[in-house]
Amino acid sequence: MQTQNTQNAQRIPAKGYAVFGKDKKFEPFTFSRHPLGAQDILVEILYAGICHSDIHSARSEWHEGIYPMVPGHEIAGRVVAVGEGVEKFKVGDYAGIGCMVNSCGECAACKKSQEQFCENGKTVFTYDCLDYFHDNEPHYGGYSDKIVVSEKFGICVPKNAPLEKVAPLLCAGITTYSPLKFSQIGKGSKVGVAGFGGLGSMAVKYAVQMGAEVGVFARNDKKKQAALAMGAKYFYTSTKNVAQKYDLIISTIPTPYDVMDYVKLLGYGGELAIVGLPPAVLAPKIDTSALVWAANRRVYGSLIGGIKETQEMLDFSLKNHIYPETEVILASEIDRAYENLTTGKAGFRYVIDMKRSGL
Ligand code: NDP
Ligand code: ZN
User: Fold this and answer.
1) How many other CB atoms are there within 10 angstroms of residue 194's CB atom?
2) CA–centroid distance for 268 within its chain
3) Which pLDDT tens digits describe the chain residue by residue (359 residues)?
4) I need a surface site. Which of 92, 118, 209, 307 has the fewest CB within 10 A?
5) What are the pocket residues of ligand 1 if the criterion is a CB atom closer than 6 Å to any ligand atom?
6) Looking at the structure, do residues 182 and 153 belong to the same domain, yes or no?
7) Is 85 in the same domain as 218?
8) How many domains does the chain have?
9) Whose CA is nearest to atom 1 of ligand 1?
10) Ligand nearest to the CA of 55
11) 8 A C-beta contact, residue 47 and residue 327
12) 21 & 154 share domain
């Protein structure tokens, strides 16, 4: 086992692709990561998925971003060094890293492995976030050649896994798996999926695997055949004249829309899980009066998923061969991918091949 003496540990040089402002294009960026601590792993990044959250963040659509920003929270790679206290990984193992790299570990939420809701406010998100545990330095994400994280936040990936398909599971996978579990979806459940991109397609695949009857809501029929091939039974381009009533609808929509259009499609006591996060100034509001008349239907939000559940999702995905539809690109193509994702020209998930990107 390769270990590093943490007392004399040096900062780790890294290279990546960053934006230097909300209207800027991606550029190569040289930086350094904090030294390998006793409980840390150093991961050589092989693949990084592009999530629509990367676009919202890079363009400061939720809040003013921290620049330079290296996005990327769908990371798959190989462990190349481990701190002296690491037990979960050894050099050569594959690891996945998602939206978080650390949290307090002591509060009720962390103890329940809901680290994304750390009650001490110490969740360190993978990028666009200050690292409380390392002098509040900005943390840089996965569009880079290597990353250092606490072993607790590394997800174990078996050696035979297709890494370019594993990367998007670390966000798109867990963010859709989690509400399906929370709403106890199973055989015979009726599940609607609104927004059929990276997250929506994973929601369809998981719901089908769990035995649900699935309907997809998109704004045109370009992906109808893909939805049916994934096992969806219905495909709608409008919320009008929909005969089915749903137990759960997961909204992954990243643009403004009327939330009540989907609430109305739920059966009595049905649930709308909102995961899509449109730009803050355009975020949909709920008509509370309409909700009062809406037959005890529930609306809730869902944020990624905890580390324990992320490992469960990964194991479930691999066991059942549930993988995202991916298009592998080079880092030089990130701007084009962002453009395609915001103009309806994208498929499901772009994944950057970091090794071939020439960093
Ligand atoms: P994608 O861009 O891959 O997919 C979004 C899909 O939504 C596209 O297919 C798009 O269609 C469709 N869409 C856009 N507007 C509408 C609309 N008004 N009605 C129906 N469909 C629409 O994005 P992702 O799947 O990566 O992310 C989706 C959202 O989820 C983002 O806002 C992202 O930030 C958020 N997210 C939230 C997380 C959480 O923890 N809650 C975690 C990860 C992501 P078209 O092709 O026509 O544009
Ligand atoms: Zn994401």
Assistant:
1) 27
2) 30
3) 333 334 457 999 999 999 999 999 999 999 999 999 999 999 999 999 999 999 999 999 999 999 999 999 999 999 999 999 999 999 999 999 999 999 999 999 999 999 999 999 999 999 999 999 999 999 999 999 999 999 999 999 999 899 999 999 999 999 999 999 999 999 999 999 999 999 999 999 999 999 999 999 999 999 999 999 999 999 999 999 999 999 999 999 999 999 999 999 999 999 999 999 999 999 999 999 999 999 899 999 999 999 999 999 999 999 999 999 999 999 999 999 999 999 999 999 999 999 999 88
4) 92
5) 51-53, 56, 171, 175, 194-200, 217-220, 252-255, 257, 275-277, 302-304, 341, 344
6) no
7) no
8) 2
9) 197
10) 1
11) no
12) yes
Domain that holds residue 245: 172-301
CA proximity to 167, closest of 86, 74, 229, 104: 74
Residue 55 domain flag: yes
Within a domain: residue 64?
yes
Q: Say if residue 188 is in the same domain as residue 253.
A: yes
User: Residue length, the chain?
Assistant: 359
Query: 21 with 150, same domain?
Result: yes
Contact between 12 and 137 under an 8 Å Cβ cutoff? The reply is no
pTM of the model: 0.97
Largest CA distance in the chain: 67
CATH of the domain at 185: 3.40.50.720
Question: Ligand 2 is a single-atom ion; what residues have CB below 5 A from it?
Answer: 51, 53, 171
Cβ(301)–Cβ(275) below 8 Å: yes
